[in-house]
Design a protein that fits this description.
The chain is α+β, with helices and mostly antiparallel strands. It has a four-stranded antiparallel beta sheet with strand order 1-2-4-3, sandwiched between helices. α2 runs antiparallel to α4. The longest helix is centred in the middle third of the chain and has 18 residues.
Amino acid sequence: MDFKELVQQRRSHRKFTEEEISAEDVQLLLRAALMSPTSKGQRSWQFVVVDDKLKIEKMSDAKEQGSQFLKEAPLCIVVLGDPMQNDCWIEDGSIAAYSILLQAEDLGLGACWVQMRARGLNDGTPANTVIRGILDIPENLDVLCVIGIGHKGMVRQPQNEERLKWENVKVE
């Protein structure tokens, strides 16, 4: 499909089949992330690929809402950055994460971004701390998001062109 079609088809998927993701597809997902543009060409993001069901289940409980569906994902990619090394780590990580989402769609996979930065548990424990402990992530790295990826377990309709908010665009 062409890019116009790809962005229209890409939707968040939170239901997955039990089918594993092939090593070739995992490599293509990471390739897309590693090719994403970064501020000053720093490429300072890092990624952790998780396919261990127990670790994924623990990560799904890193915040109170919006992450529980990860338990069903056969694969997660954690997007990390070092705020002291790169003041654009959030932007760079976001671009890389979206590259992963587009590549997943292109491969026919379902995926959904789970925001972890500035999120956490009701007791005040940051999601960042929880995930850092599960995956033994160094203290200098912060977790931006976790992307749950799998074979689509549901059908989603493409974005509806008629619902685009063109009124939110100003042309001068």
